[in-house]
Amino acid sequence: MVDMARVFAMNGVDVTIITTSGNAAIFQSSIDRDSSHGVPIRTHAIEFPALQVGLPPEIEKLFEELEADCIVSDMFHPWTVDAAAKLGVPRIVFYAASCLSRCAVHSLEQHGSSHKKVGSDDEKFILEGLPHVLQMSKLQLPDWIRKPNGYTYLMNMINDSAKRSYGAVFNSFFEFEGAYGEHYKEAYGTKCWSLGPVSMWVNKDDSDKVQRGHQENVLVDEEEEEGWLQWLNSKKEGSVLYVSFGSLNKFPSSQLVEIAHALENSGHDFIWVVRKTKNDDDHNNELGFMEEFEERVRSSNRGYLIWGWAPQLLILENPSIGGMVTHCGWNTVVESMSVGLAMVTWPLFAEHFFNEKLVVDVLRIGVSVGNKEWRNWNEFGDGVVKREDIGRAIELVMGCGEEGEGMRVRAKALSDAAKKAIEFGGTSHANVVELIQELRSLKGNRRDKPTIEFDLEIEKSLKKN
């Protein structure tokens, strides 16, 4: 979302990012660099309401003080649609997810009986009404869809606010999932713009890439960085598999053992980002195994482990990287595609299983490792994917067979399309220009008309489009 805000600012829009001080620490260095180059962007930090539940009252007042012409807000702030209405300005919802995933959720809302008709939790059913025939099992759906809970109520609020918004923006581009961007407009009855890949657009130098997603007050270990970089540079082009499951993954020891053996047995070099674990009695066995594994693969020069955070953008664009094992988080999917990598998909939680459908079934640039069950981000889950299944998927992506070669060719073509999308005249560039011009036009109309007339004009525009 921050990268998208930077795209707006680079195109002459005056941008204020409203967030907490803790969140600001993750990206402030990029904002400071942009601002020092004359880009009209800044951060406004607010105090996190730790002692209360609800919206800090100063935010709506802040919108007025900033004289906001448009509010772009994360989908998890559905209240902003009402705040924007009070000001008589458009609200645009930002999704940190694929267009396909939002269309899939809408399909399940409209055709809720489809997944309820199957005889068992692992029996396949079709997601109805989508541009492609996509099949899933009930176990692969989020728990709040399978059985209503408190999160279901929140998602209903989010979806309702999306339908009441002026439009939506996605970190995507037409050639990537254009059919689902068009389907979103029809399903939700609002406008929709794909403006990505935004990271490719704004993170052009190494200082941005190495710090993206890393807190500015936490120093990057230069010795560690030099280590993995030297190791990667010593490898042949396209020979290394990059393995990362994001910052929230949580695997039991038994699963880590299977992953480790699969990587070691694959015959391919690999670099694995491993989440740091607590050094207590519950984790001593796991830690001991992983440290022994690390020592063994380093001595054979077959593998390299990075503990904790890793500068993913820099790693992915290294010429030695030839494929990736991913949890199908949307940022990682877009970043992998942007550099033309085929993927081994291992969805875990959130909208990951929907993203897997895009990668494997629609775009055909990846192969599933075979994970069968959605789980909450903070849970281990019951199933363990065996080393044989992991190894099979790795070989399909990294091997020299016809299927792997086809995936790599298609991934490279999408990478080329991504670069063109953000260039002058490209689809995403045109969408940014169109959106900014439209917002400026709405601002001009608002100056000339009372708020109630302006609200009616927004409503007419929504129905027309």
Automatic annotation (TrEMBL):
Pfam families: UDPGT
GO molecular function annotation: glycosyltransferase activity
Keyword annotations: Glycosyltransferase, Transferase
Glycosyltransferase is among the record's keywords: yes
CDD domains reported for this sequence: GT1_Gtf-like
Family: Belongs to the UDP-glycosyltransferase family.
Protein name: Soyasapogenol B glucuronide galactosyltransferase
Species whose genome carries this gene: Stylosanthes scabra
Gene name as annotated: GMSGT2_4
